[in-house]
């Protein structure tokens, strides 16, 4: 790879090269520790004598910009780089748009902070130690062999047929979703599925109804598309269908395991929601983010399986069952919107990584995903039971757990007023991370409670962590 240096004319060759190298080092384009080409190679590249190159290297070494290592070569020396010149945002024509994005709050806990304490009840995350890395590695090797046999061009925007077929079988078996391979579009996680849908369905000012409390990244995404996002309250049966405003074009719900409160949507409420969507001509996004892990009661029908008019898009992810870093999800689309979504996917990023798709297809068709889910279910069921025993036991004086039947987080509301920020701060000082549900409320009055995730905390760590929470609650009461 050649060093990018531009020589204009044949005058002052040494000066041109010296100024460019020094400027690149000062500006940070040539980073500390980067090796420069040997003087012979650079001389051949630029058509300059080798002695001139050597003299310039020597001068920059004398000035402490470069450092020579005997037998190894010439390297950029570590030194502070000059601050790059940046134009003020206010000078740009797009300043309003930039400031709108900058003003958005962080939608979820900072991933960089997660896992920095000993006992972390972060929601929506699993521990990597539970993932079958060896089996996934073999699937990845299989994927590389498949790619080696391929023509080497771009693939289908909707995803590999092998993976779409495996997904269709999986969700038909686990969730009763009515679909075939041609109804599935593979996405880079749920968030891209939501983005694709909103790009196709919404125009500026369109009304979107979301659960309140609900999932902030979805709400923020719809807002970024120029939609008017309306928070619709939830109760013990799920979304209040009677509060969905006229003119709504898109409805976003999590009926199997309401995020963040945890209750499933009742059958009567599901029927009412489908009826209301038909009246409005609205699209329903059914986000089925973690319902593979079910602990009690019979599974409820998915909205998609109850839909007789093509209003429901079923969206799922492998971030919860596998690893978030894989960024693999899918959408099951009714015929009316399928072609438009596929075109939007192609325009946005053409297709999701083929390596990851082949590996996941192999992982699923070999039965590895179901095996992994069964293994995880046993672990999560034990953790859920431990937490519920404590919430219904010595912690019941302060907290009331909302009944959940699926997923791997529990929401518990405080029975009495408490300084929740202080509680979270004190818990973090004793190596326990807790998370408030307040950030999930949008237009309805926030409730005081905790979202207690049990996907990533070790089972044997739950009781010691909750012991510390109990002690701090006792101390706060004493005050």
Characterise the protein shown here.
- The protein has 479 residues and is of the alpha/beta class.
- It has three domains: 64 residues, Winged helix-like DNA-binding domain superfamily/Winged helix DNA-binding domain (Arc Repressor Mutant, subunit A, Orthogonal Bundle), CATH 1.10.10.10; 117 residues, Aspartate Aminotransferase, domain 1 (Alpha-Beta Complex), CATH 3.90.1150.10; 235 residues, Type I PLP-dependent aspartate aminotransferase-like (Major domain) (Aspartate Aminotransferase, domain 2).
- It contains 15 helices and 15 strands.
- The strands form four sheets. It has an eight-stranded mixed beta sheet, with helices on both faces.
- A hairpin with a 3-residue loop joins strand 1 and strand 2.
- Helix 1 crosses helix 3 and helix 2 crosses helix 3.
- The model has no long low-confidence stretch (mean pLDDT 91).
Q: How is this fold's topology laid out?
A:
Layout: H1 13-27, H2 39-46, H3 50-62, E1 66-69, E2 73-76, H4 95-102, E3 119-120, H5 133-149, H6 161-175, E4 184-187, H7 189-201, E5 207-212, H8 216-224, E6 228-235, E7 238-239, E8 248-253, H9 267-280, E9 283-287, H10 303-306, E10 312-317, E11 329-332, H11 335-349, H12 354-365, H13 368-391, E12 399-401, E13 409-414, H14 420-429, E14 432-433, E15 449-453, H15 459-478
Parallel strand pairs: 3-14, 5-6, 5-8, 8-9, 9-10
Antiparallel strand pairs: 1-2, 4-11, 6-7, 10-11, 12-13, 13-15
Helix pairs in contact: 1-3, 2-3, 5-12, 6-12, 7-8, 7-11, 13-15
